[in-house]
Amino acid sequence: MTIRFGHYLAAAALLAFLPAAAYAATDEQKKDAYAIVEKNTQTINDIADSIYYFAEMGMQETESTKLLKDTMEAAGFKVEMGGAGMPTNFWASYGSGHPYIVIETEIDALPGGSQTPLEFEHKPLIPGAPGHMEGHNTHGGVATAAAFAVKQVMDKYHLPGTIALNFGPAEEEIASRPFIVKSGAFKDVDAAIYLHIGENFTTGWGLQNYAAIGVQFAFHGKSSHAAVDPWDGKNALDALELMDNGVAFLRQQMEPTYRIHRSIMNGGIQPNVIPDFTKIWYFVRDATMPKARATYDKLLNIAKGADLMTGTTHDVIYQASAWPALSNKAMAQVVLKNYTAVGLPKWSDEEQKFARDFQKAEDKPVIGLATTLPDVGSRPQSTASNDSGDISWVVPAVVYTFPASVPGIPYHNWVAAVTPTSTIAHKGEIAGAKALAGSVLDFMTSPDVLKAAHDEFDQATKTTPYFSLVPDGQQPDIDLDKDIMAQYRPAMSKFYLHKTPRYN
Predict the structure, then answer these.
(1) How far is CA 208 from CA 53, 347, 374, in A?
(2) Reading across the β-sheet that carries 277-286, which strands appear in turn?
(3) Extended beta strands in 221-299, E state
(4) For the chain, first and last CA: distance in Å?
(5) What is the pLDDT of residues 284-302, one digit of tens each?
(6) In the chain, count of helices (H) and strands (E)?
(7) Which helix (H) or strand (E) holds 104?
(8) Is 257 exposed, middle or buried (0-12, 13-18, 19+ CB in 10 A)?
(9) DSSP annotation string for 470-482
(10) Which helix (H) or strand (E) is 23 found in, with range?
(11) Cα–Cα distances in Å, from 450 out to 25, 52, 424, 426, 433?
């Protein structure tokens, strides 16, 4: 048992002396939470829609976090900004002591995703500007509403503990959670629930996605005239190409689970100049972090070999890392119970027609919106990555999605920016907030659930101990995407909703 869970046992002892209604989340308490969410429908939608039009990329979520800070402080939460060296790292909390439950998610947008809502044709609000083509804007409404509903129930029923909410910056670049974890922000947390938009309610257990390591190699050589005295040069482009060829030959020797992708950031100036500087950016992925780390170590040696062949030197520049999300079975069963109780939204005929027309326009299976809940369990591991995975290796955590997007419409594509402000998204946000609030209340009031979650977590992390990929002294890149937002924000600001959401 971890030391952190020892704090929770003290809270559990306190719960034993409280009335039965305060010992485990009751139907009455959950109905109160649902009613609070329902009463705040407009506020939830205003938050999500406002963030959609802010459309801020990683580390630049200034307007989004300003809105959320104002909203949550007005709702009685203590809000801290700037943790782990990132100005847009948002942490809101209410209550004190244990159990300490954290809702964690993100609100960043993607480059080039600007789109006019509800239009099937590609019609950017601002050509080239960022946009929410994964629907992260919906997370703002769902997470804050659930946290507020839990707060109100805690107050009414005198429930002990702490509810917290963390919006980590730059999830799309998998750039913040490893720093947040390394800063110690989760050291006293008892459990965390990771929230994400989806086309249905889902949860599961086991490894949910892939580990990833982002790294750049910058080669330094010596310039010379490529025709007059090439022998005086040390060709940094040759080093880069030799490294990339070495990686290509490595592929045959790797296990089937691995992935490597790369982009050449700088390949020199012009053909008649031997380049003295080049840069290449790799993403290494695998089913586990130890496997990804083993491939990463091979890349380090390949870079050294390229230097030996060309007389160059190189720098290794850490960009990002993400452990695979380890979703906890004991917690997933609680989430399943709660979203089953809430059920899917009641879609209108117009919403179903819209979804089918959208699917047809995108040449996807014409199935409409989800009307039945999926099976839950140890589902196939996705090869995508998300930096929330690091959190799941230092505290028991569960992955949870809520139904707010059209089935079959792919994320990271402008088409996914068509619906995040629609009534489909709005209804999904309300259902998602209810199931999330109910799950958090169960975690806060059920010592047996948290004990089972910690026993499972201890066993998993004993088999595969967590290690941080963030180099000592490394600072997060808070200027990430700064130039893009500076370029487009003035034009984007014309579409801001200028809402002042308030929970009550």
Answers:
(1) 30, 29, 16
(2) 259-266, 277-286, 211-220, 313-322
(3) 259-266, 277-286
(4) 39
(5) 999 999 999 999 999 999 9
(6) 14, 13
(7) strand 100-105
(8) middle
(9) SPTT----TTTTH
(10) helix 20-23
(11) 14, 35, 34, 31, 21
CA 329 to CA 65: how far, in whole Å? 32
Element holding 95 (H helix, E strand): strand 90-96
For strands 313-322 and 277-286, give the pairing: unpaired
Which residue type, as a one-letter code, is found at position 80?
E
- Count other C-beta atoms under 10 Å from residue 78's C-beta: 12
- In this structure, are residues 207 and 326 in contact, taking their beta carbons and an 8 Å threshold? yes
- What are the structural domains, with CATH classification, of the chain? 3-208+324-495 (3.40.630.10), 211-321 (3.30.70.360)
CB 374 within 8 A of CB 340: no
Runs of H (alpha helix) within 56-198: 62-74, 137-157, 177-182
Q: What is the pLDDT of residues 138-175, one digit of tens each?
A: 999 999 999 999 999 999 999 999 999 999 999 999 89
Confidence tier at 13 by pLDDT (50, 70, 90)? very low
The closest of 433, 429, 450 to 148, measured between CA atoms, is 433
134 and 412 Cβ atoms separated by less than 8 Å? yes
Q: Could you tell me which of 211, 227, 370, 371 has the C-alpha nearest to residue 290?
A: 211
Question: Helices in 251-348 by DSSP H: which ranges?
Answer: 289-310, 329-342
Is 283's pLDDT higher than 50? yes
Strands of 374-489, DSSP E: 397-403
Report whether 162 contacts 96 (CB < 8 A). yes
At residue 65, the 3 state secondary structure works out as helix
Residue 372 vs residues 22, 293, 305, 380: alpha-carbon distances, Å:
33, 40, 55, 20
CA distances from 18 to 14, 28, 269, 400, 443 (A): 7, 17, 72, 30, 16
**Residues 123/411, Cβ–Cβ less than 8 Å:** no
Q: Cα separation of 89 and 167, whole Å? A: 6
Q: How far, in Å, CA of 26 to CA of 13, rounded?
A: 19
